[in-house]
């Protein structure tokens, strides 16, 4: 029977276990959709993006939002970066299947259609789109004063849907991952857009200063890194990429989305710089364990590329030109469905979140 360990994220209001069960219930119904033609979707539900077959070309699709990071923007009265997060959360997922993101559609729901706020959100969307190399050909703004309540009065939600293209023979699914492969990590610049509910509960003073000169609010609002151009350069250089993982909610257990027929051993995460915001969250959270940190946050690694050992040198060179600090952080093992974080003494599986290694069965 799985070991049940209380989660600080659940105590903060986000019940990932219940959400997984609810999502499974939804997906079970959606899988029963019956069409008078073969399905176009190539990948099973649960990957970072799916690919729809259209002749010899695949159209990659994904959708995501910015979550409660919007509340930080509201509290600080700063809306010019949150659009970058919307773009990043979507394009970083679509590139995980080897696709080139080409367009993002945005959906903005607001308590009050304030032109100044929407202009600022638009600036962030523009910056993110230019960084990722995508168009924003359309979108939707919905005024929902009965549904949204701001912090204090500028409630909004921001969601994007991304389209990409990929040749069917160039899709990266993770199926090629095998023991001995190398895991290369790209550094994050902070919490990105996951775990904000827990971070905000623990760090109540947004004006508090961090050792790096940022305030807590500035650190939490720092926009999610966009990895598209670096990863696309890797793919276009014909590096034999076996797997690509965007490290978001669920942290490194996300690697199991690629393949659970192998295991992942992370024994050099310290090669990537860990933003001081993570240390402060762990220090201030009385009920926040090391396991909770790795269940909830990216802990300094925003993206992973899985490659054969012979491709390490060229991979580090290509990726570091856009994301300095890229490093080899681990390797693939034969331990099916298992993710081990050696330096933190943690292990997680397909069925269980991260927990101390000594408690693992």
Topology of this protein?
Layout: H1 8-11, H2 16-30, E1 50-54, E2 57-65, H3 69-76, H4 82-94, E3 100-110, H5 115-132, E4 139-143, E5 156-167, E6 182-187, H6 196-202, H7 216-221, H8 228-236, E7 243-246, E8 263-266, H9 276-284, H10 290-296, E9 301-307, H11 312-320, E10 327-333, E11 338-341, E12 346-349, E13 355-356
Parallel strand pairs: 3-4, 8-11
Antiparallel strand pairs: 1-2, 2-5, 3-5, 6-9, 6-10, 7-9, 8-10, 11-12, 12-13
Provide an overview of this structure.
A hairpin with a 2-residue loop joins strand 1 (50-54) and strand 2. The termini are close together. The model is unreliable at 1-5 (pLDDT under 50). The protein folds into two domains: 39-170, 2-Layer Sandwich (60s Ribosomal Protein L30, Chain: A), CATH 3.30.1330.10; 182-359, Alpha-Beta Complex (Phosphoribosyl-aminoimidazole Synthetase, Chain A, domain 2). The protein is of the alpha+beta class and 361 residues long. The protein has helices at residues 8-11, 16-30, 69-76, 82-94, 115-132, 196-202, 216-221, 228-236, 276-284, 290-296, 312-320, and strands at 50-54, 57-65, 100-110, 139-143, 156-167, 182-187, 243-246, 263-266, 301-307, 327-333, 338-341, 346-349, 355-356. The longest helix is centred in the middle third of the chain and has 18 residues, at 115-132.
Instruction: Give me the CATH superfamily of the largest domain.
Output: PurM-like C-terminal domain
Identify the overall geometry. Answer: globular
CATH architecture heading of the largest domain: Alpha-Beta Complex
For the sheet with most strands, the description reads:
8 strands, mixed
Question: Strand content of the residues, in percent?
Answer: 15-25%
Query: What oligomeric state best describes the polypeptide chains here?
Result: single chain
Query: What is the CATH class designation of the largest domain?
Result: Alpha Beta
Order of helices and strands: HHEEHHEHEEEHHHEEHHEHEEEE
Determine the N-to-C terminus distance.
9 Å
| CATH topology annotation of the largest domain | Phosphoribosyl-aminoimidazole Synthetase, Chain A, domain 2
Secondary structural class: alpha+beta
Strands, total number: 13
Low-confidence stretches: 1-5
**Rg, Cα atoms, Å:** 20 Å
Q: What is the share of helical residues?
A: 25-40%
Number of helices: 11
Mean pLDDT: 91
